[in-house]
Fold:
Amino acid sequence: MKDLIDIRDLSPEDLQKLTDTALDIIARPEAYSHLCQGKKLATLFFEPSTRTRLSFEAAMYELGGQVLGFSQANSSSAAKGESVADTARVVECYADIIATRHPLEGAPLVAAINAKIPIINAGDGGHNHPTQTLADLLTIRRRKGRFGHLTIGLCGDLKYGRTVHSLIGAMSRYEGVKFVLISPEELRLPEYVRRDLEQGGIPYEENRDLEDAMPGLDVLYMTRVQRERFASMEEYERLKDSYILTVDKLKNAKPDMCILHPLPRVNEISVLVDSDPRACYFEQALNGKFMRMALILRLLGIPGEKPAQEVPTGEMVPGLRCWNHRCICQVEQELPQRFRRDREGAYRCLYCEALAETE
Amino acid sequence: MKDLIDIRDLSPEDLQKLTDTALDIIARPEAYSHLCQGKKLATLFFEPSTRTRLSFEAAMYELGGQVLGFSQANSSSAAKGESVADTARVVECYADIIATRHPLEGAPLVAAINAKIPIINAGDGGHNHPTQTLADLLTIRRRKGRFGHLTIGLCGDLKYGRTVHSLIGAMSRYEGVKFVLISPEELRLPEYVRRDLEQGGIPYEENRDLEDAMPGLDVLYMTRVQRERFASMEEYERLKDSYILTVDKLKNAKPDMCILHPLPRVNEISVLVDSDPRACYFEQALNGKFMRMALILRLLGIPGEKPAQEVPTGEMVPGLRCWNHRCICQVEQELPQRFRRDREGAYRCLYCEALAETE
Amino acid sequence: MKDLIDIRDLSPEDLQKLTDTALDIIARPEAYSHLCQGKKLATLFFEPSTRTRLSFEAAMYELGGQVLGFSQANSSSAAKGESVADTARVVECYADIIATRHPLEGAPLVAAINAKIPIINAGDGGHNHPTQTLADLLTIRRRKGRFGHLTIGLCGDLKYGRTVHSLIGAMSRYEGVKFVLISPEELRLPEYVRRDLEQGGIPYEENRDLEDAMPGLDVLYMTRVQRERFASMEEYERLKDSYILTVDKLKNAKPDMCILHPLPRVNEISVLVDSDPRACYFEQALNGKFMRMALILRLLGIPGEKPAQEVPTGEMVPGLRCWNHRCICQVEQELPQRFRRDREGAYRCLYCEALAETE
Structure:
């Protein structure tokens, strides 16, 4: 692993080590405050995200390093039509590690393939956002003391919420984990994710009612339900309040349940819940910084050794191509179409994981 | 005082101490150059202001600290509709102190109420801009050696100019201060500010003519007169030149008068005045940096002790509400309506100071 | 030389010293890593340019200094109509050296005239971009070991390409240099540049065909050919492929030729050329950082002495004025019209070098 592109790049052992490092940083920050002296992080944000960008910047500063970059595409050369590959190769002249967010799926992988320095995916469209999942995981470990034997409720938009999919992917690997999927019909977890759970023998149940599901949960992961996602305004008006967390809905929750939210929230958690000791979403933001510190150290091999410098490159398959219009392969100059086989043997685009189709 | 939201939060003793610190920084910069090592300033600028932002950043760097943040709202989560309170609570995970500018009145106070770290108001709409007044005050002290016994001319837009109102508020507390208000009829100092002067027994006079007022002034504070503020184009054309400072209009000014301007200027001071030794507006920008250094140290309690961590919270008054459409209370999620009584006993909005009205 | 505004401000001796310093930085980076401690670079980019800005920022960080600034005009006071002169005078309160890019020709010179600190021109419209030329020159020196006795091919848009004009200006001063100008008729090198070559006795030839010119070249400088520059779409379609560098077109090139490109490229060099050892454009970006480090040290006088603090001021000539609508003199408040005589005795605008005309 040279880069972090997808949370699945990290094994449970990797996650154990990263959270160990984060806990040590929390315990002894001064021991880490100069480890990145003379190093530079580039934050290449082709679309804005204050929280994520500032978290990376704070992480690097707390390690004694420096930061440069841009916070939106129109202040970058992307406006002049430069490819992601070229940007990565130029920026590796200026920095030691890159954190990048891009509206197109697979763009961070293209950067990783082209740059010799580590690339961290800070969000590629609706595809992956692995450092958010790192924040979620450290929060669960700090609050519950373990990753296994937990009942995890996921509430709201389970269809489009990439953080939900990543968290399921990461937590599925621990023993005794059970998921409770709480969403309106329109926003159910996609069929292929449910199939993964079934094939892995991971127990899950679906529930339309948050209050009904509440008493059994150890963790409640809230996400936003957006109006645009509903078939009709009536449907939205009828359902929206069901997925807003209020003090009232918490009355039958376990006293040590923990409430997560990737933030920003709009109104899906009442402000009155913030003072409940079960609310963890602001400490989740803090934990995100510590995990990013641990990750930067790991990828730079500080202290100790760099992980193996592997980057997946897939294979070229004549006659196949990716038709996902949100994939980086649609716009990147001379980017070869490359594929990987999934668990079921089907070819998927190396960059965005869409199923390959014939040309 | 945990934060600096309004210049009136600072007593004359506070101002004496802050300007003392600034003068010591000027005399012995190397003694201060590492005091903020390991500390981070977040500059959260929801609307752009190069001068103010760069001044804060330079201040923090000259104290040995680091800076992160954003320079306009569309590169921030605000574009996704996040509340000011949530932004403040997340950013306190990443920084030790926040300087924020926001188009809505009261937004920095909302941040201060929600964050445990110090908040500095770097401008909230037309409401307050206390660090500009700190720059003005240090410039007066360095040039005149005192705050009392000065005749201060204020010229231009006295109606909307928030820096004028703040300077009057701060200087009114010193003995022997007299104001000369020089403006067109349309842009007179608001009635409530004049009433404050009268009730406090502070002498002032109004004058439509800058040249006529000039000989008596120890300090001349220029501001911009904007075309949009006039009832008619004819009126503007007839009056505009009267409020532009030229070399010629200075001929009867005292030889040690000092000319201030909050910058940026457009054309209200001729470039030819810049080389006059009485022109202080560029050193005012420099003084702003030194006062921001003194302020950051004070709020972080470096060296020595932090000031008392008080944040005004006002009171809830059933049946009353704030109707000011530029107030943060109109948009912030679940923000309670809160009020404070003014000197005359009337309830005013805690956030923007507008008079409360019945619901 | 207090500033770097135009590559011609640097003599061949200056260039020798700057490249010497850059080579020493490459050899012994740790010897330079603290030389700018406590110094601040302001990057004032009134139009975006990621590559150039990040290169300056990386340069300053690798010297141990700090960076502040803005990356586009709408996050700056320029949006409020502040003059370049005022911006420069304010920013010198906050920084020790300024690198600035501006859409108007001559803006960096106006900053240099007004600020007491050094100004580096990071691009002023289509006029000058001297630090790009510094990157080009270091790349040539590192690859070829010399500046003289080289045949330099310049390919693509030779009419509008400011980097081409600067490189010709800098390289013309070395013995044994010959230029091969490869462009469509529409984009030939301007007549006044060709006249300069002829008057200086510098050999050059023109060629419409890149493959034909290839075998004789020691250096090939590629630039982008933009569609908009052609008289007709047919003409563009007929010609465009001739000026795209492919693996195939390189087959008769010298084995040690070096290929330069100022970047960003769009499609004028095939990605397949990148792995050819003659491709130098990414190391050119790296070399740009080292030259900017050498330049910052030189202008700050670290170590050693500052260069003489001269700024050209030209002369006022009644009855003459500059009519170039892209010149800073068209918008800057109260900026006097000033002129310099060129080699042929004609008056040219001090700021943009356009020929002066009668009022």
Remarks:
- Chain B has a mean pLDDT of 93.
